[in-house]
């Protein structure tokens, strides 16, 4: 094998941050605020900077009373129960509650770095109480953080993918880039994403199913093409303690016509709970009305991944129009069920029977798509437990679905310090944040905005930890985290 000569990086920096999204930027800003010199390496070119954070829209926030852009209250215990439900208990409660408590107080800091929030939204997501939305979305948030980083003197390099680290018994020494450059630093924060964009790794993780299919070959990537998981794989092979199942991910049912990469939020199909979903055999396979869409939308990608051909179809009638966020692609429209089936490539008789069986099972009470209403089915498997209205009002609409991977949950195990661990021992100067450790909180499932909660909390914690490893302190954050830790202990 030919070895590329390593080039000197010049004087060592205090804190090296690897990654360019929300968690990395939070770490870089916090370390710089503490007084450390900071170099941030982003693998993408400048125009694609920000990783998956470009596509985010909001932050899930705990609050005990109305706060600026958040209405009513969303107390810790309700947030925790929401997280517990979607993860099925596959979460570290201590770290989850740390994230939840941190979410209650991070917005003033975000505002100081140029992030703006918009007034509560109305519409299909029903999250004005639980989530704070960014003015201008994730792209505006990322741009604000980069501007603030520049103003504070953080050095940023684009097109700078890191392939491996130089380690000494768990201590970070230097990073080696794809070009062979060796960059030494006194401490390091890794926040460069999961392996969602690495289709061969996805294929290996998911394997072959009983039908002889390789499901991952039909996956679409909702976010950045640059999250290849190169450094994650290196760290796991280097012996970092791991967390998470490689097949678990933020996996959403998105429009099958979406691009392979970077489709973002507009490719999501949000009418699932207002109609029914069938696979390519025209059979239903899950309760479309199990819970509010923001709590359950991220289970549907995995459900579709388990269906033949990794494809499904969300079907509604005219009554649903105006009650959900319209997707970027128009639905297939037809005046009869038989015509819709033919247009979608479904066997008409099987599809019509599925719809008629569903219609006959509907027990319509008081329909309310903003509440867990009493419209449900009886004698139908699987049941539809809420919002069950017959599909009987043409025109009918169908949307093809594919699994859309946002980010993967396989990562590195951490504690409340965000330090990477080797055989249970914390590294003194190597930290991790964002997707690379989100599996500690998200063993499976997802609820809207919690990825940003995790990235913001652990990005800030990791940045302060890295600065502390270099001899710097951040008194304001130390006080904030002391209060959070005290609350967590009780």
UniProtKB/TrEMBL annotation:
Say if the entry is tagged with keyword Zinc. no
Task: Give GO terms: molecular function aspect only.
Answer: oxidoreductase activity
Domain FAD-dependent oxidoreductase 2 FAD-binding per the UniProt entry, residue ranges: 14-441
Instruction: Write down the Gene3D superfamilies for this protein, in alphabetical order.
Output: FAD/NAD(P)-binding domain, Succinate dehydrogenase/fumarate reductase flavoprotein, catalytic domain
Q: Does the keyword Oxidoreductase apply?
A: yes
Q: Which residues cross the membrane?
A: none
UniProt keywords (A-Z) are: FAD, Flavoprotein, Oxidoreductase
Cofactor dependence is on:
FAD
Pfam families, per the entry: FAD_binding_2
User: Any idea what this protein is called?
Assistant: FAD-dependent tricarballylate dehydrogenase TcuA
Q: What species is this protein from?
A: Xylophilus rhododendri
- Organism phylogeny: Bacteria, Pseudomonadati, Pseudomonadota, Betaproteobacteria, Burkholderiales
């Amino acid at each position: 094998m030919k070895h590329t000569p390593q080039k000197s990086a010049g004087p060592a920096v205090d804190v090296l941050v690897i990654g360019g999204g929300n968690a990395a930027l939070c770490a870089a800003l916090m370390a710089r605020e503490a007084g450390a010199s900071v170099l941030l390496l982003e693998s993408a070119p400048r125009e694609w900077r920000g990783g998956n954070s470009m596509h985010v829209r909001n932050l899930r926030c705990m609050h005990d009373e109305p706060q600026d852009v958040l209405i009513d209250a969303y107390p810790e215990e309700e947030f925790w129960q929401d997280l517990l439900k979607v993860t099925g208990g596959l979460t570290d409660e201590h770290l989850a509650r740390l994230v939840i408590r941190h979410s209650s107080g991070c917005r003033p800091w975000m505002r100081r770095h140029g992030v703006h929030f918009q007034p509560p939204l109305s519409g299909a997501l029903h999250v004005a109480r639980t989530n704070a939305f960014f003015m201008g979305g994730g792209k505006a948030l990322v741009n604000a953080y980069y501007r603030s980083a520049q103003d504070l003197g953080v050095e940023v390099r684009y097109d700078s993918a890191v392939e491996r680290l130089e380690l000494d018994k768990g201590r970070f020494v230097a990073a080696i880039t794809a070009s062979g450059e060796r960059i030494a630093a006194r401490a390091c924060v890794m926040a460069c994403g999961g392996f969602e964009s690495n289709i061969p790794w996805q294929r290996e993780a998911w394997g072959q199913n009983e039908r002889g299919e390789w499901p991952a070959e039909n996956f679409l990537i909702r976010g950045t093409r640059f999250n290849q998981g190169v450094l994650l794989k290196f760290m796991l092979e280097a012996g970092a303690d791991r967390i998470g199942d490689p097949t678990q991910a933020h996996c959403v049912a998105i429009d099958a016509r979406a691009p392979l990469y970077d489709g973002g939020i507009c490719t999501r199909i949000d009418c699932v709970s207002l109609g029914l979903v069938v696979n390519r055999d025209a059979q239903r396979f899950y309760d479309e009305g199990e819970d509010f869409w923001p709590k359950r939308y991220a289970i549907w990608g995995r459900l579709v991944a388990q269906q033949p051909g990794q494809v499904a179809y969300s079907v509604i009638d005219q009554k649903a129009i105006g009650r959900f966020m319209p997707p970027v692609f128009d639905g297939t429209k037809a005046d009869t069920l038989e015509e819709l089936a033919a247009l979608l490539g479904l066997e008409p008789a099987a599809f019509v029977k599925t719809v008629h069986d569903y219609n006959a099972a509907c027990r319509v009470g008081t329909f309310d798509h903003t509440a867990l209403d009493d419209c449900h089915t009886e004698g139908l498997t699987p049941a539809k437990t809420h919002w069950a209205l017959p599909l009987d009002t043409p025109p009918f609409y169908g949307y093809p679905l594919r699994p859309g991977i946002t980010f993967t949950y396989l990562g590195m195990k951490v504690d409340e310090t965000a330090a990477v661990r080797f055989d249970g021992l914390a590294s003194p100067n190597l930290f991790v944040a964002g997707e690379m450790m989100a599996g500690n909180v998200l063993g499976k499932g997802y609820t809207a905005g919690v990825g940003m909660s995790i990235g913001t909390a652990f990005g800030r914690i990791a940045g302060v930890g890295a600065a502390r490893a270099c001899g710097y302190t951040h008194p304001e954050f130390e006080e904030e985290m002391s209060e959070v830790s005290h609350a967590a202990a009780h």
